[in-house]
Specification:
Blueprint lengths: L1 E2 L9 H13 L4 H8 L5 E10 L4 E10 L4 E6 L7 H8 L3 E4 L3 E4 H8 L2 H12 L12 E2 L23 E7 L1 H13 L6 H6 E7 L7 H11 L3 E6 L20 E5 L4 E4 L9 H16 L17 H9 L14
Helix pairs in contact: 1-2, 1-10, 3-4, 4-6
Length: 329
């Protein structure tokens, strides 16, 4: 169930559920992700990971394409709790200029930059009506579909198989990268056709990614297509802390405590310092495990950042569809 502000573009409830699921299961292996997505239709998946320890880069994206090739989901993996280099990426807050829009979190930007040629190739293939599984030889892909669902050898895909709807999504670090991917699409004239097909950037537990200048320009360009979902007192949307510099959110925010999503006009501010906020966030998680102190109020929590919370909140009031029937209007 989505309770929205009628004055702005609305997120789609069905899309919110499917994309929250993709973002959550992106933390698993490709086979598990495909099984989770199969509830909502037939998909081809192509997953690419790039890691450079010296540069603190650990980037992982998956292209999830409907078998009809009309729909593409670009899903970005978030911070793995046990991946040191993901945490070092999150901690690399020294800002850098990004797409002439303003300054952004350097670690997030580098993770997008290292994947950009791969993203570019797959988006181009989708526009041409090609199967994303065939773009890069050696890519980790889902099992090949049956012959009945693929074009005959030597025949180009029909026009109806070309990309009509693109969604970009991710949780945590993946959410930050999703927003930066959109920013690049909206500042390069090369991607005009892709922009026309972008139905929305759905982010879950997204940290702030840029300064006030960046946020203002990004809001003008695609703020009405960025839907930020924040579960309860999730601490990550209030990071990076103010002690590392001034960061600002943009886009449309929706909050939940488990009963669907409600539009939130007020933009959350940054925490002051990481050490204090992290300690409070850990205490908030611990108190939820101990009924005797569960009543103690806290301003933010690490436990609320779990992708499972975002999936659960997105399921409220939403039917379990046999297929993802995206809207093309």
């Amino acid at each position: 169930m989505l309770r929205v502000n009628p004055a702005v573009r609305e997120p789609d409830a069905e899309a919110t559920l499917v994309l929250s699921l993709a973002s959550a299961w992106m933390y698993s292996d490709l086979d598990t992700l495909e099984k989770a997505m199969s509830v909502y239709g037939d998909w081809d998946l192509a997953r690419i990971s790039v890691r450079n320890d010296a540069l603190f880069v650990a980037s992982d994206v998956c292209f999830i394409q409907s078998r009809c090739r009309r729909l593409l989901i670009l899903c970005v993996k978030g911070t793995e709790p046990g991946n040191l280099f993901n945490w070092l990426t999150d901690a690399s807050v020294v800002s850098q200029r990004y797409c002439s829009l303003g300054h952004v979190h350097g670690g997030f930007a580098r993770n997008v930059d290292v994947m950009w040629s791969i993203i570019d190739k797959h988006l181009g293939a989708a526009l041409r009506g090609e199967y994303i599984r065939d773009v890069l030889p050696g890519t980790e892909v889902s099992p090949r579909p049956s012959a009945a669902s693929t074009p005959a050898a030597g025949h180009a895909p029909e026009a109806q198989g070309k990309l009509e709807a693109l969604f970009i999504t991710g949780h945590s670090l993946g959410a930050a990268m999703a927003a930066l991917i959109a920013a690049r699409l909206f500042t390069d004239s090369k991607y005009g056709e892709i922009r026309q097909r972008l139905r929305g950037v759905y982010t879950f537990g997204q940290p702030m990614i840029g300064d006030a200048g960046f946020a203002a320009r990004a809001e003008e360009l695609f703020g009405d297509r960025l839907f930020r979902f924040v579960y309860a007192n999730d601490i990550v949307p209030r990071l990076p802390p103010l002690s590392t510099g001034y960061f600002v959110h943009f886009g449309r925010a929706y909050r939940s405590t488990g009963q669907g999503w409600t539009y939130e006009g007020k933009i959350a501010g940054q925490t002051r310092t990481f050490l204090v906020s992290a300690a409070v966030g850990i205490f908030a998680w611990v108190k939820e495990q101990l009924p005797i102190i569960r009543w103690v109020p806290v301003p933010f929590s690490w436990g609320d950042h779990s992708p499972a919370n975002y999936v659960e909140a997105s399921q409220v009031g939403t039917a379990q569809p046999a297929i993802f029937r995206f809207r093309l209007e």
